[in-house]
């Protein structure tokens, strides 16, 4: 058992927002020890509350993990929105979005895994994915700005999924040691990722469209 957990367990509950404290504690455990270390008891110990306290907000570990994942999706959406807004042109926006996606995945590997673990068996996207400020919505809007027909919903959906999958694939492979010399030659990981995305399907095509 970690020393910090032992000390936290002895402290009485004093947080103003129990749910927030529990999610923060879960993220600390996730980052330090991985998803297998997550449990309601471990989170209570990390947050410095009684073992029964988490049950006021989460019926089980699955609900806690879903809350952590939801927060991850919101943070990814914010990173994508920021990258899109900062892009110097429509042509650059999609690639910048892809770079932001890969950077988020690389900087938050345990959280990123938890986010996707909860998505595989869903029959439809969660409600937050449909929000205009979600990462998915920003990708779709950027594709429209790059020249896609917004009325062709099937084609737009396929293009958005393609862009998302491409960034996901780059995120999965960006850490391979065999690319280290190429990254060094290109000036670091971000230029490397940007160059890869510039060579992929929807990203490359968007750069050939006239800018708005």
Q: Count up the helices.
A: 11
Overall form = globular
Low-confidence stretches at least 5 residues in length (pLDDT < 50)? 1-13
Q: Provide the number of structural domains.
A: 2
Q: If you average the pLDDT, what whole number results?
A: 86
The CA-CA distance between the termini, in Å, is 57 Å
Q: Give the beta-strand count.
A: 0
Classify the oligomer: single chain
- CATH class wording of the largest domain: Mainly Alpha
CATH topology of the largest domain: Tetracycline Repressor, domain 2
Largest sheet: none
Radius of gyration: 20 Å
Order of helices and strands: HHHHHHHHHHH
Structural class: mainly alpha
Briefly summarize what is shown.
The protein has 212 residues and is mainly α. It contains eleven helices and no strands. The protein folds into two domains: 3-59, Arc Repressor Mutant, subunit A (Orthogonal Bundle); 63-206, Tetracycline Repressor, domain 2 (Orthogonal Bundle), CATH 1.10.357.
């Amino acid at each position: 058992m970690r020393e910090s957990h032992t000390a936290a367990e002895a402290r009485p509950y004093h947080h103003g927002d129990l749910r927030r404290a529990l999610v923060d504690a879960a993220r600390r455990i996730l980052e330090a020890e991985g998803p297998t270390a997550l449990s309601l008891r471990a989170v209570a110990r990390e947050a410095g509350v009684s073992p029964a306290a988490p049950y006021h907000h989460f019926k089980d570990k699955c609900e806690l993990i879903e809350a952590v994942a939801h927060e991850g999706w919101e943070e990814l959406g914010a990173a994508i929105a920021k990258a899109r807004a900062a892009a110097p042109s429509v042509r650059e926006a999609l690639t910048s979005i892809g770079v932001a996606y890969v950077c988020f995945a690389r900087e938050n590997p345990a959280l990123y895994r938890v986010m996707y673990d909860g998505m595989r068996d869903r029959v439809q996207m969660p409600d937050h994915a449909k929000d205009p400020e979600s990462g998915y919505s920003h990708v779709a809007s950027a594709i429209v700005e790059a020249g896609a027909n917004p009325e062709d919903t099937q084609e737009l959906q396929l293009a958005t999924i393609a862009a998302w999958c491409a960034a996901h694939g780059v995120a999965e492979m960006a850490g391979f040691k065999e690319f280290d010399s190429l990254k060094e030659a290109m000036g670091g990981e971000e230029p490397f990722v940007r160059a890869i995305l510039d060579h992929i399907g929807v990203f490359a095509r968007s750069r050939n469209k006239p800018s708005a």
